[in-house]
Amino acid sequence: MAGFLSSRLLRVAALALCATSTAALARDVVVHAGHLIDGVSAKPRDKVSILIHDDRITAVQDGFVTPAGAEVVDLSSATVLPGLIDMHDHITGQYTGKNPIAERFTTNNLDTAYESVAYVKRTLDAGFTSVRDVGGDTDVVVALKRAIKSGEISGPRLWVSGYPLGPSGGHGDPRNGIRTDLDLHSENKVVDGPEAAVRIVREMHRDGVDLIKIMPSGGVLSIGDDPNVTLMSDAEIKAIVDTAHNLGMRVAAHAHGQNAIVRASALGVDSIEHGSFGDAEAYKVMKEHGTWLVPTLLVADTVVKVAKAHPESLPPSSAKKALEVGPITLRNLGAAYKAGVKIAFGTDQGMAPHGTNGKEFALMVAAGMPPMETIRAATVNAAELLGAKADVGSVQAGRYADIIAVSGDPLSDVTELERVRFVMKGGDVVKPWSAAAQ
């Protein structure tokens, strides 16, 4: 009997200790925002309190209020926004200026994994609390996502596609431009035929990806293919879209050429990445099918500069393609916006240094989008394309407490978003407020 009572007392004590520990972990925070661009309202709000319990926002109230026991984060002199979302990133790679062919044969996935730890931290510190990675080694990027989610390393929330799928000889084929007798492990990276497409999508879902990226057109930084040419068949695209959607995954389509944009949109992809040669017909089809455009102006601007200054640092044929495609990509966003195409923010980071994602905003404004619309593209619009509006993309009750702040007004000077002074992710301050330039 004594042993039974002792055992019962130990269980009660353990439960009490767990309850005490849970209570100790519970945390209330209030952010006093001088100006708030919440991601949903047409205009900023002044003097607002954002109430947070643990990792979620519980309320947004007018005026500066301080609930009893709440920790105060004073951003009363700042402009506060939702954490930003980059919908087209390559978070595990970065342009180094070195010979790209040599790098392919002198680095491996372990190098990539270690380097990525720094890349994700820089991206988070730049105010991007969520990122959709659309092209990296599947094992590396899925493991990186898990490490961030578990708190092992600091970085944005990740949605990952793993290795992008395209046809033999297309954009993404690892054997492009390489000796034909070399084995570059193209299995599950090249899709030829709808049956292969179905199998590979199922296997990638099993391996932990969140979405699928396809390559229906040629690309700029690949060797020997033409950005204007459609390289995937309708049967291949439809097989991928149907399989991915059935498994609850969205599909992003790398498409420069007009024909690839039209066909991929009509076949049900969720987003067109780049969309360089879009025209009135393409925008009409995209609107009819609810297809998003992720324009990636930063990579277009960066690769044009590199092609002019250091063409030898790009793969063969890429400099010429960059000089042809880049200016068109930069110019056409304005036409897509005026046509009413849905637009989500994406940089195609990997060419420009990680952490400079905010430079995309000024390029979007220069192309014809109002500053508020560029901010919506990087917040509520991006969250909708992710399928995560209930969690990220706005400062509202129920969302994660992903919050950033800048010292000036990004609606009058959008480059303020290149100088993020404060970052909170899930209620945790990962970059304390600093009014000084960094």
* Average residue-wise pLDDT: 90
Q: Biggest sheet, strands in spatial order?
A: 3-2-1-4-13-14-15
Question: Structural class of the secondary structure composition?
Answer: alpha/beta
Oligomer: single chain
What's the total number of strands?
15
Proportion of helical residues: 25-40%
Write down the overall geometry: globular
Our measurement of the CA-to-CA distance between the termini, rounded to an integer number of angstroms, reads 67 Å
**In percent, how much strand structure appears in the residues?**
15-25%
Sheet of most strands? 7 strands, mixed
Uncertain segments are 4-24
Description:
With 438 residues, this protein is an alpha/beta fold. It contains 13 helices and 15 strands. It has helices at residues 2-25, 100-106, 109-125, 138-150, 194-206, 234-246, 258-266, 280-289, 297-309, 318-338, 359-366, 371-377, 380-386, and strands at residues 28-36, 45-53, 56-62, 71-82, 84-89, 128-133, 157-160, 211-214, 250-255, 271-274, 292-294, 342-343, 403-406, 422-425, 428-431. Strands 3-2-1-4-13-14-15 form a 7-stranded mixed sheet, with no helix packed on it. A hairpin with a 2-residue loop joins β14 and β15. Mean pLDDT is 90; it is low at 4-24.
